[in-house]
Design goal:
This protein has 262 residues and is mostly helical. It has helices at 11-24, 29-48, 75-83, 91-102, 108-113, 142-158, 180-193, 202-215, 220-227, 232-235, 243-253, and strands at 119-120, 125-129, 135-139.
Length: 262
């Protein structure tokens, strides 16, 4: 409500100010919808308290918006990205980061915050503290185990941890935890080495993890647990199969889709 301090509050003024802010700051429809939701809650509260004669929260409709289909790699592209990273001082660390993002579907913040005691080597499980410090367990496979085994002897040999960061898994060159920006740079470099021309971010590897598991037949509820989504609706955004893929699945498994025997 900052733009209205010191002036009368009117519905027309609210509309005009919101439109001006939306244009000046180039808000997308989803951002406008979020701002409107917060504004509605405030207006409804003011009405309940008797400070507004009319409930203005009912006079607005949220704009419609399309959710972008998440960027993801094909299985062949993902394999190439993981296999094409060149040898160098930081190659073991960087390959481990790539494996954690793609093979385990971690958020970049979760990978950067991972500590040694979060890795249960015998069970091959990762203890992940996700959004809101919500705990979940994520299994990892042979590829992560191999890169982890390569990286561990080099971890303290190549990186000098700062005080209080000794148990962090992935170090930056200066000894602190690897940052999101550094992780983003590593992923974009890996995509370039693999010859992938479109922009690839750390989150694209998480999208790829989810997509490839769904294509392999994983139940959506299990995927929700692995990704740490609070709502199944969020997980459903990964259901972006192409029409060709759906056609192939139906043709392969549905008895009525197969050609009749001659």
């Amino acid at each position: 409500m900052e733009p209205f301090v010191g002036r009368p509050l009117t519905f027309e003024g609210l509309q005009a100010e919101l439109a001006a802010l939306s244009q000046a700051r180039e808000w997308q429809a989803i951002t406008v919808a979020r701002k409107l939701s917060a504004l509605r809650s405030l207006l409804a509260f003011l009405h309940r308290q008797g400070l507004l004669a009319e409930d203005w929260s009912q006079l607005w409709e949220s704009p419609r918006f399309w959710r972008k289909v998440p960027t993801y790699l094909t299985p062949e592209e993902a394999q190439c990205l993981l296999d094409s990273y060149p040898e160098g001082r930081h190659s073991a660390r960087n390959r481990l980061l790539l494996e954690l993002l793609y093979s385990c579907g971690l958020r970049v913040s979760e990978a950067c915050a991972l500590r040694l005691d979060d890795i249960l080597r015998t069970e091959r499980m990762l203890r992940i503290w996700g959004k809101g410090q919500k705990l979940r367990w994520v299994p990892y496979g042979r590829s992560v185990e191999e890169v982890l085994t390569t990286y561990e002897p080099l971890r303290l040999r190549r990186y000098k941890p700062k005080k209080g960061t000794e148990t962090i898994l992935l170090f930056s060159q200066k000894g602190g935890p690897l940052t999101r920006i550094q992780a983003y740079t590593i992923v974009t470099q890996a995509a370039r080495y693999a010859g992938i021309e479109r922009p690839i971010s750390p989150h694209a590897l998480r999208h790829s993890y989810a997509t490839h598991l769904l294509l392999a037949g994983m139940d959506l509820a299990y995927l929700q647990q692995l990704l740490g989504h609070a709502s199944l609706t969020t997980t459903q955004h990964y259901l972006h199969y192409s029409a060709g893929q759906l056609g192939q699945v139906v043709a392969q498994y549905h008895p009525r889709a197969k050609e009749a025997p001659k």
